[in-house]
Sequence to fold (131 residues):
Amino acid sequence: MSAPRMQVTRSEDGEKAVLSFLESSGMSGSIELDTEQLLQLIASLGYARSSLLEKQPIPSMEGTRVTPVYNTHWALQIDTLTEGSTLAFQHPAYGAVGLVFTPDDVEKLIQGLQKHRTIIHSAPDASQKPS
Fold:
């Protein structure tokens, strides 16, 4: 793995992100970004990564560590034309994102959620806290 070429930190006033070029980049300087500019950069990097991976198979999620999102707004958007359903939510790092479920995916999700209903929670809000 190559040496990091830049780092992102929070500005002293906490209002902006600062992207600084490191020595290994061969460049010097830094760029201040507000939240909207940072979100645009994150989206652009995501699209770039997606295009680099487009011919590779999607890796399995089995055993993959994920970073859960708690306390967010979400919505289920049903598309009768394609018979797909989109679960859209506000991700704190990436902004609004969505996952499209096919009819087969919906059946798997329903089965999983029915199993979830059988879990006995020790406190009313236990499902909203990391374990």
